[in-house]
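Summarise what follows for lecture notes:
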Amino acid sequence: MTLRISLILGPVAACALALPAAAQDYCGGGSGTWIGGNQANSDIATSDTYREQLALVLLGNAHVSLFDLSSAMDVRLEAQGRGAGDPVIEILDSTGAVVGGDDDSGGGTSSAALLSLQPGTYCMNTSSYDNAPLTATVRIGQTRHEALTEGGAQLSANGGNTGGGNTGGGDTGNDGGGSMTDSGACGGAMMIGGGNPVEGSLGGGLSVTNAIDSVPTYAFVVGSPTTLSITAENQDADPVLTLTGDDGTFYAENDDFDGLNSRIDMTTALQPGTYCIGLRALSNGTLPVTVALTGYDPVAAAQALYDQGEVAPPMDGSYPITPLGTVASRSVSNAQVQGDRAQWFSLTVDQTGLLLIEAIATSNGDPVLRLFDDVGRQIGYNDDYGQGLDSQIAARVFPGTYLVALTDISGSSPMLRLVMERYVPAQ
């Protein structure tokens, strides 16, 4: 027997816990729960109000909300966590291809995305950023419907990432800028590189600097298949980057790649055509933000991920790793993180047991911990354990070598204390 539960959260808004749908597969083979309670009531294009669900996410899984569109339109998708929950959303089309996503654009830890979608069936996946248990409200609606989050309302007011843009003034960088597109989804956007096609490695790169409130959209032309990196830098503005095609195709979005700066790496070559860069400021849209295009460098990209502590570096001596030796029972080490760059430590465990790792700020720090096994799989992550800003990981480990990445997001380069304790099963 299948138990189905549904609650009413708002006018004509269906609300359901994350229960599986019928046997039919959606979005490339997955299943989910119709946002309106059933397929007929989940066509956002014909809805007179938003559709809403309560998502309960456990054990690192995702809540999948299904919805239909009977006609092309702009759709607003939001998720707002309850308590300390930090939801992340990802939107897939009927083939399973990712067409959009977001983390934190809704304001605080809430997520919000505004997408121009064609008719079809879509899935919105809501997951927990740090894999902690999550209860969240998810809402899908037209731009005329009431927004769930503050950021969602701002997306609708500003046009979000669906194209267009203010062509206001500002100080341009070394590419001169100045020219504007006059058609397509990038219509009215300021051209980077003056509209000249970018090719190959892009030489020294192209950049332009303006306040996001003045110039929220840029465009550039690709002349031949090109892999490239796009960055938006000014941590005080906290920019969010979105890359779309001039036909409205969504390619990528990023927030907080390097501190509060954003970066998109297009490792698959962009084909000739015009592309749009959309910007949103999560903090201060009046501050200058530098947007740069550079040729994608896989070595530099890997180095950047090591520096951020998000990917484990090789243990062949090519990247600095501090060895801590075998953890016998308890060890304490001091570390001072410089800027946003991670400090890496290696340790050895000689028998199966529980490994407890703590990062404690001795001053005004906010440490973050990640634990990886010897083949680079992340097996532990934590930020802000308990009621404070210190971090703690407890992981079951087996004999072998492990890597610990220690970062700090306070921006103050504090002194941190790394504490490790090992517990073995009782005999």
User: Anything to note?
Assistant: Residues 25 and 31 are 5 Å apart (CA to CA). The mean pLDDT is 82. The chain is about 5% helix and 45% strand. Helices lie at 150-158, 298-308.
